[in-house]
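It is worth pausing here to work through a concrete case rather than discussing structure prediction in the abstract. The textbook approach is simple: state the sequence, then state the predicted structure, then interpret. We follow exactly that order.
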Amino acid sequence: MAQSHREALRQLFEVAEQQQGYFTTKQAKAAGFAENTHPYHVQAGNWIREHRGIYRLALFPSTERPDLVLWALWSRNRNEEVEGVYSHHTALSLYDLSDLNSAKLHMTVPAGFRRNSEIPSILALHFADLPESDVQTAQGFKFTRPLRTILDLIELGTVERNFIRQAIRQAFDRGLITRQQIRNTPISGPARKTIEEALRRAA
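Step two, the predicted structure:
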């Protein structure tokens, strides 16, 4: 194997390893794989084409939630920066904070987020400019922190209150949110009332 090809493989694996085996067309090119060779690697079974401009290393070990990386990469901007942050129902499920289930993946994207192509039906997009302090990073994707997640669900207004109260109590019991954090966070009156009622019942 030529040294340059071996180096390209190494670089691509390093990128893909951080993204549960996934990588983009631009990332493959940056690693040293010319774009006109990409169809060959798919046909040869080295890569699996998962979506337009997104591939996965065929031999990479399977992971628990590869879908979260796939759609995070879909949300990247022209600078290859992931803009989507999993939020609302999806973030709540990542913390295992309630029995609430959703058929869609909820993702918050910047207010100025635009796509020329159709939004994938699996995604429910919410538009907001999240501060970095409300976001945490996993392997290949981002999601909102517990208090931000709960506040988003309260504001959404479509989730039954018993699910919200369950999430608040469990987050508090597990130390994912604290009274100090609640005091220090700008929260609307109705949302603060919902949180305080849930915590009173938990006491």
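Step three, interpretation. The chain has a mean pLDDT of 92. The two ends are 65 Å apart (CA to CA).
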